[in-house]
Hints:
Bound molecules: flavin mononucleotide
CATH class: Alpha Beta
Order of helices and strands: HHHEEEHEEEHEHEHEHEHEHEHEHH
Helix content: 25-40%
Number of domains: 1
CATH topology: TIM Barrel
Radius of gyration: 19 Å
CATH architecture: Alpha-Beta Barrel
CATH superfamily: Aldolase class I
Number of helices: 13
Amino acid sequence: xxxxLRPILFxxxxxxxxxxxxxxxxxxxxLPIFSPLLRIFYCYKSPKLEKEVMGIxxxxxxxxxxxxxxxxxxxxxxxxxxxxxxxxxSLTPNEQIGNPKPRCFRLLPDRAIINRMGIxxxxxxFAVTRLKDKKSRTVVGANIIKSTSSANDQAPQDYEKxxxxxxxxxxxxxxxxxxxxxxxxxxxxxxxxxxxxxxxxTTLRKYFDEYRPILxxxxxxxxxxxxxxxxxxxxxxxxxxxxxxxxxxxREFLTxxxxxxxxxxxxxxxxxxxxRKSLEVVQYIHNKTSGQLPIIAVGxxxxxxxxxxxxxxxxxxxQIYTGFIYNGPGFVRRILRHLAKNS
Length: 343
Ligand SMILES: Cc1cc2nc3c(=O)[nH]c(=O)nc-3n(C[C@H](O)[C@H](O)[C@H](O)COP(=O)(O)O)c2cc1C
């Protein structure tokens, strides 16, 4: 069915296609038959796929990466496509409109996307209302980031605000310091900036009754020296894991015409060309920490074999985004079947 639907969706700009899908999921969910039907077609269950990571029970290790359900509007409908967890966000303390359009582009020959969305989102309050309204049927993580208008020295307060408001409504947090599309954000990966953010969140967490894991999402463009510092900080700080990786600013390994790539301009690249780099980062972190740090692997996973390779390389969990766009909703089930068969 996606073979028929894909050319229609791909005839729209990526952002319009995305909004159509979110709108359809919202409308169709009013039909009582919709969710059971999706689950029959797309879900794949096997005890072999169940996992406990960071104290959370996952029905399977395949999640939807941040940026798809930015506002926490359709996480239940998305879970009906078979995902074991959904990461909402990135969310900022207040609503922001993001960068001027167009800001998201497909590179079809590369099975890739370049985006410079600039963290358009409706803000934490809106997401909390959605999370309160619709009890989640799956594990939900919240990815948080500073407001674009906040200077980097105000960033810790931004993360703190979002963290406190979302705490009772999600299962884990991801601190996004690796978005290449918001000025200054990747600088927050510098160890001094990062320490303050991490200290504030781990301290605040002590005031809550229940424990929520906190993970850090890193860029694939860090040097290994920078990664070493970050890993050391995570290990001593009481953070619980790492999400590797976000999109890259590199334009290596592209086969699309260079004038098209130049015309698109700035933005984070995701999809097939990112895979090798993300895998390398996952392997590096796994080896460096002797497998002690939970890793959520994300970046360029376009085939079930690649998802398995990430797990074999040390990832506890895996997320997809661009692979879901190019391969369609049946992709999750295909990965799960492959994992169950080969476990
Ligand atoms: C259109 C788009 C929007 C994204 N928005 C976010 C975001 O808001 N926060 C975030 O942490 N990552 C965001 N990402 C990055 C993805 O979560 C993921 O890390 C990246 O795309 C690499 O995975 P993939 O190759 O499977 O897409 C976005 C990616 C895309 C394509």
